[in-house]
Specification:
Layout: H1 7-33, H2 41-51, H3 70-93, H4 96-99, H5 103-112, H6 115-124, H7 137-166
Amino acid sequence: MTRLPDIATVAAIVATGIGATAFMDIWLTFLKRMGVPTLNFAFIGRWVGHLFHGTFAHASIGQAKPIRGERSLGWLTHYAIGIAFAALLVAIQGIGWTRHPTVLPAVLVGMVTVAAPLFVMQPAMGSGFAASRTPTPLRNCLRSVANHTVFGFGLYLSALVVAAIGR
């Protein structure tokens, strides 16, 4: 029988997810300052807002009707997804990983999470599977893989910090 995590483990998962997402956001800020286009989180909020009204897919999320508070909803969703991915890592590796994190599982989970934008969010927002409807699909896919690999490193580094604080 699988035991449920205690409050300290849940807190470690939440903190790790938040830390990893923030680490990725620092990376995205760096890219943006280098002139590399990055995701507009308002579009994530717009997509989620439309989900609540029964619309999953859009021809172009940029052309969809704006949702009140979409930028905030997008950021909240972004961090909630980061926490969920941290929980996925712990579900795969076991609760002990939160006390003794290792880099390889974190990076692998980070890389696997790229499936969410490539095969769910991008198609639903009108960009096609694996950004196939964008002008530079391969570049966009590679950028997504890089971003999620950075997220994976963020999972590991955040878990190290959380584990050190918990000792």
